[in-house]
Write a structure and sequence with these properties.
- One of its GO terms (cellular component) is chloroplast.
- Pfam families: Hydrolase.
- InterPro entries: HAD-like_sf (IPR036412), HAD-SF_hydro_IA (IPR006439), HAD_sf (IPR023214).
- The chain is an alpha/beta fold.
- It is built from 10 helices and 8 strands.
- Helix 2 crosses helix 3 and helix 2 runs antiparallel to helix 5.
- The chain binds magnesium ion.
Length: 256
């Protein structure tokens, strides 16, 4: 059962101020069109990863989870209203405590089934090794529970610090967890990149924090026209984690 903190409590527990950082404009690029004419390279001092579908192979059937939580009719209605994806945690927040409790149990069931089949994403371990060799910090933000993060750490012997689960409020796409990590690292958000497979959670969190955002899009689903007018755009897009190292080397100053 996740620890649920009211927003006011979360702010009290983590009371540092969040200054507004200006995001330096850089040209849009992706790993297939690396520009050699890029202006002065930005410094990179940390990378923050999403967990499910980014550091781990996607195993949770989110559509089935949403159906189970919302019911078929509500699912279809909400899906139509939110073509870029359903924010299930946000959606159930306004429900009665009893209904909410049941929804969290259903979500936890799906997440548990996912844990049984957990696999590390190809390229994740190599990328972590590369970041370590450059003394670039590694953090993790997930909307999954902290126990799933603990299991991930334990099973794959990779550690991310800080690693925040959904007990940290407000969660992604709010920039708060990313700003919290930047503050803990004592680095500017503009020196950090958020990497994740969700446009609406990871990219929005990264951009709102004033960081770089890299979208992992294995299947090319975000090439679909329905995402063309989405308010937030990633700075980079890759189809696998193995592309991230060359992207970092081409676009950033990785010196300590
Ligand atoms: Mg994800």
């Amino acid at each position: 059962m996740p620890l649920l903190l009211p927003r006011a409590t979360a702010l009290f527990l983590f009371p540092f101020p969040f200054p507004k950082f200006k995001f330096p404009k850089i040209p849009m690029a992706n790993s297939n069109t690396l520009s050699t004419a890029a202006p002065r390279r930005a410094r990179l001092r940390g990378v923050v990863f999403d967990m499910d579908g980014t550091l781990t192979v996607p195993v949770i059937d989110f559509a089935a989870m949403y159906r189970a939580v919302l019911g078929e009719k509500e699912y279809i209605r909400i899906r139509a209203e939110n073509p870029s994806g359903i924010d299930i945690l946000h959606h159930i927040e306004s429900w009665s405590p009893e209904k909410q409790q049941k929804a969290y149990e259903t979500i936890a069931d799906f997440e548990r089934q996912g844990l049984d089949r957990l696999q590390i994403m190809p390229g994740a371990a190599e990328l972590c090794g590369f970041l370590d060799s450059k003394n670039i910090r590694r953090g993790l933000i997930t909307r999954n529970v902290k126990t799933a993060v603990d299991l991930f750490h334990e099973r794959f012997k990779l550690s991310f610090t800080p690693a925040l689960g959904r007990e940290y409020r407000p969660y992604k796409p709010d920039p708060a967890p990313l700003l919290h990590i930047c503050a803990a690292w004592e680095v500017e958000p503009s020196e950090v990149m958020m990497v994740g497979d969700s446009l609406k959670d990871d990219v929005v969190c990264g951009k709102r924090a004033g960081s770089f955002a890299c979208l992992l899009d294995e299947s090319g689903r975000y090439d679909s026209p329905e995402y063309a007018n989405f308010d937030y755009k990633p700075d980079f897009k890759v189809s696998s984690l193995t592309e991230v190292q060359s992207l970092l080397e081409a676009h950033f100053d990785l010196s300590p």
